[in-house]
Amino acid sequence: MRPILMKGHERPLTFLKYNRDGDLLFSCAKDHTPTVWFADNGERLGTYRGHNGAVWSCDVSRDSMRLITGSADQTAKLWNVQTGAQLYTFNFDSPARSVEFSVGDKLAVITTDPFMELTSAIHVKRIARDPADQTGESVLVLKGPQGRINRAVWGPLNRTIISGGEDSVIRIWDSETGKLLRESDKESGHKKTITSLVKAADGSHFLSGSLDKSAKLWDSRTLTLIKTYVTERPVNAVAMSPLLDHVVLGGGQDASAVTTTDHRAGKFEAKFYDKILQEEIGGVKGHFGPINALAFNPDGKSFSSGGEDGYVRLHHFDPDYFNIKI
Amino acid sequence: MMANPTQQTKIRWGELEEDDNESLDFLLPPKQVIGPDENGIKKVIEYKFNDDGNKVKITTTTRVRKLANARLSKRAVERRNWPKFGDAVREDVGSRLTMVSTEEIVLERPRAPGSKPEETKVAGDPFGTLGQKGAVLMVCRTCGKKGDHWTSRCPYKDLALPTEGFVDKPAVSETAAAAAGSGKSTYVPPGMRPGAERTGTDMRRRNDENSVRVTNLSEDTREPDLLELFRPFGAVSRVYVAVDQKTGMSRGFGFVNFVNKEDAQRAINKLNGYGYDNLILRVEWATPRTN
């Protein structure tokens, strides 16, 4: 395959997200402008100007009309996907790290970083159908975990919120009462910071990637460990194929250590693993720095990766990918 | 100044201006487009004058293929026509934000499909297989014993000094490697020092391993062609064709890495001297880079 290289960002990529139809790809980077691309040919459709800090994550509503972004400028913003107009700004007292719309797009979960004696928190906001009615008050605020919460996503039926972060513990919270329901234990859980967390297409299980050089597959309801994928480098990003039983891990060394080694030793490939057999299938090379973001097209026929090198690489699979045998 | 098209038949060549080539185009039959038919074959028939002023019929046959099955939703099609916004509005034509990689990227298989991880370890170590097959190859140059130990492991190393001039290349490299480890003043990068994490070097070795150089390739050979040519011999982990950055043409050589050494050897035996695109291929082991 010949990947499509998209050079729209001037700083390292932080997050990638496809819309539900798989025709748009949203990219976030440490430069202040999230960008939307056509997912088939990589053409740039537009940019969302208004943030004043690194943008850490984004999510798009099911009807591809609304975009929410979380940024280090201590705000999360709602955007009109089509025009790039800002609809609303949620103000916080610390950087917003992770954002996600609930199923039905009525709620959004936003995490904020620990900052100036403030602890990290998970906020649940109500998203109004009409942006004019939008308010900034939180429906629920969850506090407790130490350190940054890198990712918080909605559990099945929006009943729970699943979070993971610097304290390397995965937690499942009740999204109504805010009670902590489950916690991953020391033995089966990650040993280092959880960097990414992605749900399966049906939401029944999710995958977490960690700097302890592994990724783990968990049941979304019971939080039982299903599989572990061991690799030889810290995992920054994970993705799960909606079509085949494949998981993709991306990572590399710390950004501060990359200049001291050969790029061939840097392990900047996206590694494919068989989801069930936990065996490596192959690697896709190309980035000149660690991979920070990975996303699979909802049709499972292409995936994109975003790197510390500022490039988004969009890969449309060759036909022989679909009948790879272990 | 020009003859009226209705009087076409009466035009005399002498009346036409010589340097005005386009003026003759009305004499040509119109462009014809046939298809695309159910197989996606489309024919375009054009006529033009060549440099000598002769009429030439050009038939271009193309196959129209849908690359991705466009099962796009109505909304997605609508979005396709959305106007650009933000920075994308005033994008220069030459900004080239989106480019297709010039390099063919393949999903690199860690090992041949169907093999166990242990097997690849043996296959990846050329000496391991050699030692099993013909033990005669293992000859100690210090004591002359066959099939018992390598020169560097010779228990009699200290007793008998090797006669000078007898030492050939491999021995030099072996002793040099040993010396580098044992505190000679040459600089050794941190990653290469004994006790350091060796993953980096292993990675590199895997890349250079079982590498086959293919030369005398035709200009329009690309990686997929080479892959097609070499895949029947066994699992291929990497294919590379040197491409001229300026012209985009192949520079006539490339490299193919095999997962198994035996496959590579078979490919060399079979394809060296093989006629490919009117050229005689030269296929040989790639000499490892010396650095």
Structural commentary:
The complex is a heterodimer of chains A (about 325) and B (about 290). With about 325 residues, chain A is mainly β. Chain A has no helices and 28 strands. Chain A has a single domain (about 5-320), classed as YVTN repeat-like/Quinoprotein amine dehydrogenase (Methylamine Dehydrogenase, Chain H, 7 Propeller). In chain A, the strands form 7 sheets. Chain A has a 4-stranded antiparallel beta sheet with strand order 1-28-27-26, with no helix packed on it. Chain A has a 4-stranded antiparallel beta sheet with strand order 2-3-4-5, with no helix packed on it. The radius of gyration of chain A is 18 Å and the shape is globular. In chain A, about 55% of the residues are buried. The mean pLDDT of chain A is about 90. Among the domains of chain B are: about 15-65, no CATH class; about 115-185, no CATH class; about 205-285, 2-Layer Sandwich (Alpha-Beta Plaits), CATH 3.30.70. Chain B has a 4-stranded antiparallel beta sheet with strand order 6-7-5-10, covered by helices on one side. In chain B, strands 1-2-3 form a 3-stranded antiparallel beta sheet, with no helix packed on it. In chain B, strands 8-9 form a two-stranded antiparallel sheet. In chain B, strand 1 and strand 2 form a beta hairpin. Chains A and B meet through strand 1, strand 4, strand 5, strand 25 and strand 28 of A and helix 1, strand 4 and helix 5 of B. Strand 1 of chain A pairs antiparallel with strand 4 of chain B. Chain A: One of its GO terms (molecular function) is RNA binding. Chain A: Pfam families: EIF3I. Chain A: This is Eukaryotic translation initiation factor 3 subunit I. Chain A: Component of the eukaryotic translation initiation factor 3 (eIF-3) complex.
